Amino acid sequence: MQLYIKIKLYLCSMNHAMKQHIIPVLLLLILVKAPVYGKYSDHRNRHVDSLEIVLSRKQQLTDDELLKIYKDLMWGYLQTDGKKSTEYAEKALKISRKRGYLNSEADVLRIMGLVAYGGNDYETALGYYKEALEVTERMKDDEKYSESDVDDNLSALYGSIGNLYNMQDKLQLAIAYYQQALRIFEKYGWQESMATLYHNVAELYNSIGNKSEAEKNYNLSLAAALCSKDSLLIALPNKGLGLMYSAGGDFDRAEPYLREAYGYYSAHKDLENDAYIEVINALGRRQLFKLKNMREAERYAEEAMSRLTEDTDAETVAAVYNFMCEIEMEKKEWRKALEYAQKSVDADGEETYDDIGTYVWMTQIYTELGEKEKAKEQVVRIYNGMEQFATMHYQSGISEMEVAYDTEKKQSAIEQLEKDKKWIMTILLLVIVVLLTLVIVFVLLWRVVKQKRKQDMIQAQLSGEINERIRISRDLHDRLGGLLTLIRLQLPAGSETVKLTDEAIQEMRNVAHHLLPASLKRSGLRVALRDYCATFKNVSFAFSGEERHIKDEEVVYCIVYELVNNAVKSSGAQHISVQMEAEPDRTIIYVSDNGKGFDIDADREGRGLKNIEERVKSIGGEMTITSQQGKGTEITIELKYNNND
């Protein structure tokens, strides 16, 4: 199954330009599930052979000519001979670095990562991908490369890293990288890539039991696929939605999606055998459980059975045998049902999480056959299976249990086994473990939601404060300023009242300007703070470091404005100092005074400092306060940021 997923996700490992030429080949690989390094006998092999002949002639070739040949051979051998692909990739890498071809270097490193990925050497693959990302970052500073060149590489690398984490069952990391690639696909409207990656994200969410996110991403995949008009890409999300709804027992909702998928896969059943089996299996279950049409259900089951081959994916084989088991249970043919259930469990040669559902059926079957000891063995297998897979697949485990105990037949099996005390204790223990886990998850989620709400509220307050400052500044300047000017024009020239009115107009303009100065956006935080401090006789401003715009400058200005204003009004200080230090990875602002100081523990709440501290934290900063009565106060604000901020 992992090999199938690798080939299926492989589309996301290439840049967009390369996809235009390789998509048909990759889709063929998806359909027939060819081995990564299988025998290579089509026209591409002849192309590789011809390139090998060119190299064997020992002609005098330029670096650029050699680079093109090496890269063609690197790609040509990628799916057939990992050793040779790496050999030519290393030669291409040497020339790319010698000539300073960053785009080519990143491309080669990604291929070397893909070879390691195909050989299950995930650590080495990740190393190559990260090195390719570093090279791509350097492309941003090179005028030879456009923004689309950089985005092309990034999208391919994000897809490759997502695939790698997917295969390691680090699903949240996989989703995160897929979503980074998706943002680039959406930016350029690459519909085929969007359709493929949305489908992959949906599959991951579905596998961890997050049905709402799975549904959303399946629908986004379907929308992009319809824009691309690619019939296979349209079939994939239709199949995903149909199988998801069917697995949840919502057969009416599943039916139109399954029919759409059936239209494609029935026309390509020889190439898409596994997918075709999955679809007819789901349609058969609808006939069995929703429509109660045993004849049609058996017809679908017989066709599914007839299409099983040695190449059929183990999970697909297990699903078909499980459906046959369900049919025999409906017919009360318990021995036949048991035979198919055992075949379902044995299909992939090892115990999987999906086997737990089959153990539930086997519990009921043994109960109906009167073999209670064997029924109890199945209960133990259910419990052990849940315990084994709980950590890695918690959410999907909960979903599987809900499905396993949802139907009337499963409930009747439980009621029958309740006569056995040990069985009851096992089930009770399982339920208690699940309930406790749910409670813990609920509490953790509630804390996250609560913190998020608080953060959103603070952000909204900050946004509101900035907007209010803009409004007040405008009102002071336009309304009050205009009114004072009108009054002044009506006063006798040279009078004391005119002088006082002029001072009021100037002071009003200063206040309006410094509430949120235009220089803040134009010249940055340093200039805005310098100008504001200059309005006070006893406030000095000093700056050190390299001047640059930083993140959330408006919020920082408002915070310092309030601290200075508070110090001027209530500290009783003869001098107030504002210092700003700009370092490569942080900015530090000190606001200190030689005033009367205060008891931090006693006065902190009443001075509004808690609110200021929350605003600092909301933009990722830290605030510390040092103060003693009679010795002044110093407040330090530290803002850390990375080079992208």
Folded structure, characterized:
By secondary structure, this protein is an alpha+beta fold. Helix content is 71%, strand content 6%. It has a five-stranded mixed β-sheet with strand order 1-2-3-5-4. A hairpin with a 3-residue loop joins β4 and β5. The longest helix is centred in the last third of the chain and has 69 residues, at 421-489. The radius of gyration is 34 Å and the shape is extended. The two termini are 42 Å apart.
Give a brief description.
This protein is α+β, with helices and mostly antiparallel strands and 645 residues long. The chain has helices at 2-9, 16-32, 43-56, 63-76, 82-99, 102-118, 122-139, 147-167, 171-188, 191-207, 211-228, 231-247, 251-265, 273-290, 294-306, 314-330, 334-346, 355-368, 372-389, 394-404, 408-417, 421-489, 496-515, 519-523, 525-533, 553-570, 600-603, 609-618; strands at residues 539-545, 576-583, 586-593, 621-628, 632-640. It has a 5-stranded mixed sheet with strand order 1-2-3-5-4.
